Amino acid sequence: MKNYVKVSDKLLAELFPINRSITGSGNRHSLKILKKIVPLKIKSFKSGQKVFDWKIPDEWNPIEAWIKDKSGNILIDFKVNNLHLLGYSTPIHKKFFFHELKENLFYDKKKPKSIPYRTSYYKKRWGFCVTKSQYDLLKKSTDKLEVCIKTNFKKKGEMNYGELLIPGKTRGEILISTYLCHPSMANDNLSGVILTALIAKEILRKKNLKKSYRIIWVPETIGAIAYCKNNEKKLNQIKYGLVISTVGGPGRFSFKKSWDEKHFINDLAEKILKENRIKYKNVPFDIHGSDERQFSSQAFRINTVTIAKSKYYDYAQYHSSADDLTFVKSEYILKSLKIYMCLIEEIENQKIYKSEKKYCEPMLSKYGLYPEVGGEINPNIGSHSTLDIILWLIFLCDGNTSLEQIEKKIKVDRFKIRQVIKILLKKKILSEI
Ligand code: ZN
User: Fold this and answer.
1) Model pTM?
2) How confident is the model at residue 383 (pLDDT cuts 50, 70, 90)?
3) How far apart are the CA of 351 and the centre of ligand 1, in A?
4) Dist. CA 289 → ligand 1 center (Å)
């Protein structure tokens, strides 16, 4: 693996100050920066498109936002920290007494020193997010405060995302997804955005790639939903995936399992964490979280795992201005990169098969596989047990079961299983995915 400290440091510094949201020029700008290091395509969905139960909102671009006192001193300024502006705020320019203003101010009692991250994507309103001391300062003002928010909503706008398909030998694809809609928070989820780019860079360096990787940087929730809606066919090609979030903090690793906890991607991830002697928190699948909620929904049921470092919900700085560049370090992102690349190596080495005879048992004698008429079966295996293995393989190879799992289930060693697989591949009864 290459040393990416400088690349990661540069990306953290360049991308951190940019105001990202579910739409807007900040997202395009961020994707353009990522494009310098990986050949992703910058794509878009149109504002107003109906995507399943949702509608892609108008494109939102903030220009300025501040609160001034009577003497014209700026007390709160979006320029200083873009978390100050409630995401998707509508425009306003008006003077208010504090008691009129306070319902539009947000601070976090539990984290008084930091600015909370708040958005209002689907209900039109405006607001400012502030620290407790800023709130108290505004509260002291007996005069009217001047509030200005300049934002625009573009009906014919777009919601951008990045996509990179790295083709390998097999048709089945592995999805790697992360979200780029959060402004100025380093762990959630700038770390994930950068790590995903580094993973892509490392995959691109691999020779003789066996699997294909579909890598996407989408706005969380609405972006993933829009992607699912506009790529239903592509999603059917996806075998399983990784959802990358919060990978750059100093805290411990966490491993969130996929919706079907028996799926082998869970075994692989745990194996890697153990081999690397990582102490990690086991997180069962849960309906909360990131875009696994969309990819694993009933229509798609893609198994995705997440390995996080200082996982979302689990660190004090989460969803606040304290999740900054003093909290996240390239060194931590690169630790996560190492784990993910070990997992990808393991994924590359997996041979997963699918039975082409899923409608009942095939007529084995037709293929010369039934012992009475056989002769094509390797006599060293013993024809009776070979028949068993053939039947088990046809029964179990569903494209979602690993050889290790099959080995455990039927208690036959892998050498024997592989011999039989060779025969079944030749007869086109099994195919590799
Ligand atoms: Zn978040």
Assistant:
1) 0.93
2) very low
3) 35
4) 9
